[in-house]
Amino acid sequence: MLPVYLIGNPILRRKSYDIPMDFPNLKVLIDDMFETMYAAEGVGLAAPQVGFNIRLFVIDSHPFVESYPELVPLKKVFINPRIEEEYGELFAFTEGCLSVPEIHEEVIRKSNIKITYQDEKGDQHTEHFSGINARVIQHEYDHLEGKLFTDKVSTIKKMILKKKLTDITNGKVKPRYKSKI
Ligand code: NI
Q1: Of 24, 38, 88, 142, which residue is 20 to 30 A from 47 by alpha carbon distance?
Q2: How far is the CA of 122 from the centre of ligand 1 (A)?
Q3: Which of 106, 127, 140, 145 is catalytic?
Q4: Does the pTM exceed 0.70?
């Protein structure tokens, strides 16, 4: 398992760049990212969270099926993704993040997205996703833009969260998975 970078590390705030398909050890990195995500019981993991400012994330929304039986779970790798469009209803959903341990907050986003990306073979796709799958993708995509879900909560919530986030940055919160600030 790779160490997960926590809020406070500047790598989480940088915009990530596109990669060529012959990026060194890309397949190994993708495998390691899935392994890290599963070990930490996450539903998504973006490359900056493991120390690479590259446009790559992996998701597996399977764990949500228990609470949302109608969900068609999605396991997927997104390389060089671009969200072309966000549309549909605004909805509130509680998010968490392996880089922001022990914090869960409601975030409001649009319900549908149109995204283009390459898969692990380099093939280009344009697809639409909705509901929880769209939500997981939107959250991971934000990591590639240097954004965290805590940026998107209300001003009041931000004030309440401030101390907790500082505690993480100061190493006072130890997640049960391998991590690094
Ligand atoms: Ni996250």
Answers
A1: 88
A2: 24
A3: 140
A4: yes
Taking the mean position of all CA atoms in its chain, how far away is CA 18?
A: 17
Cα of 137 to ligand 1 centre, how many Å?
A: 10
Q: Judge contact between 70 and 112, C-beta under 8 A.
A: no
Catalytic annotation present for 89:
no
**Distance between terminal CA atoms of the chain?**
16
CA triplet 126, 145, 109: central angle to 5 degrees? 70
CA 35 – ligand 1 centroid, Å: 16
Mean pLDDT computed over 153-179: 94
Q: Which residues surround ligand 1, an ion (CB under 5 A)?
A: 97
Mean pLDDT of the chain: 97
Q: If one looks up domain 4-180 in CATH, what number appears?
A: 3.90.45.10
Q: What is the pLDDT of residues 95-153, one digit of tens each?
A: 999 999 999 999 999 999 999 999 999 999 999 999 999 999 999 999 999 999 999 99
